[in-house]
Specification:
By secondary structure, this protein is an alpha+beta fold. The chain has nine helices and 17 strands. The structure holds fe (ii) ion (FE2).
Length: 366
């Protein structure tokens, strides 16, 4: 916490809402493949006419999957333009009115003025501002609410469930922005939301023979919200960031990193349920010991699963990246276990990007 008063105190990620083509089927994917638990529902049966939303939970992570029931709606337009993707990164605050006032007075673009929603469980205040592309940060104040999710939703408790896979909370969420826009959005998080930059990578850190990107990591004052911002950099071929921007038709959320305290168990379970991860060249593991020293996990087990390891001054981390989880090569997931390390796996970037380029080459988009 800096000496300056934090004008936007945030308790954590409240929820992540996706606009998708078929919320029912997407919900089943996250239940079956990722071990999310059904939590709440809103749709025709709850009085909505234009959309349906399924709410899922695992650990502290809440995903909302929303699709349009009508042809001409902001949801339908968003999904048509961007494909399935993240519309709302909702932040849990104690005061949604002041969050709105403070960010708007610093130059935010409004999505929604403070709105009060009520039901028999109390009231929730939400407000919202735009960030990069069409992505929105909602401020959610739920201190006077005891319901299951938000007013308007009813509990969803189907007979069919699958055990969770040990995902605990959102560690960080990464945005891809356009050429020369990284600094614009880093400044937005600094000036409008009071974040500070905690890390920066340039194209020398993150480049392969073919492609490059640059990244700055912005964090709020208590460190519960960390948003790396990527932009493409010149390379001999098309970078994964450009591929994302092409298929998403603009900036958007590239990946959500979800934490576990047993990555071997979590990833084994995800794989057995059909989640596909990037495969890392086995030579990566020939030098991993020299790079990170001794670790608690068996290298052979990590190698078999394709889990990456990196070390910083505070400790080490284990991480793995999924393939894109929808038709377009846009959003993917990271599974991360931190054993002291507070960084983002810089030592893995090269091996990782080479793996991504192999996938791009297969798609003909490198
Ligand atoms: Fe990440």
């Amino acid at each position: 916490m800096s000496l300056k008063e934090d004008f936007l105190p945030i308790n954590g990620t409240d929820y992540v809402e996706f606009y998708v083509g078929n919320a029912l089927q997407a919900a089943h994917y996250y239940i079956n493949a990722f071990g999310f638990q059904p939590l709440a529902y809103a749709g025709l049966e709850t009085g909505l006419k234009d959309r349906t939303s399924y709410v899922l939970k695992q650990g502290k992570i809440i995903f909302v999957l929303t699709s349009s029931l009508i042809e001409d709606s902001p949801i339908a337009k968003h999904q048509k333009l961007h494909g399935d993707g993240i519309k709302f990164v909702a932040l849990w605050v104690d005061d949604a009115r002041s969050s709105y006032k403070e960010t708007m007075s610093r130059g935010a673009k409004s999505f929604s003025e403070p709105i009060v929603q009520k039901d028999e469980h109390g009231e929730v205040v939400t407000s919202g501002i735009f960030t990069y592309g069409e992505t929105v940060h909602l401020f959610v104040e739920r201190k006077n609410y005891k319901g299951i999710f938000l007013p308007g939703y009813r509990g969803w408790n189907p007979e069919y469930k699958k055990p969770d896979v040990g995902l605990l909370y959102v560690d960080h969420m990464v945005g891809n922005v356009g050429w020369n826009e990284m600094n614009v959005w880093a400044k937005f998080y600094e000036n409008v939301m009071g974040f500070t930059q905690i890390v920066s990578f340039d194209d020398k850190d993150i480049s392969t023979d073919y492609t490059a990107l640059m990244s700055k990591v912005m964090s709020n004052s208590n460190g519960r919200i960390k948003f790396p911002i990527n932009e493409p950099a010149e390379g001999r071929k098309k970078s994964q960031i450009e591929e994302f921007l092409d298929f998403y038709n603009g900036p958007g959320v590239q990946h959500v990193a979800m934490a576990t305290d047993d990555i071997v168990k979590t990833v084994s379970e995800l794989k057995s349920r059909g989640v596909e991860f990037l495969s890392i060249p086995s030579v990566y593991y020939d030098t991993v010991f020299e790079r990170v020293g001794s670790i608690d996990e068996e290298i052979l087990v990590l190698k078999k699963l394709g889990i990456l390891v990196d070390r910083d001054d505070e400790g080490y981390l284990l991480q793995i990246f999924s393939k894109p989880v929808q038709d377009r090569p846009t959003l993917f997931y990271e599974i991360i276990q931190r054993k002291g390390a507070i960084s983002f796996g810089k030592g893995n970037f090269k091996a990782l990007f080479e793996a991504i380029e192999e996938e791009q080459a297969r798609r003909g988009t490198l």
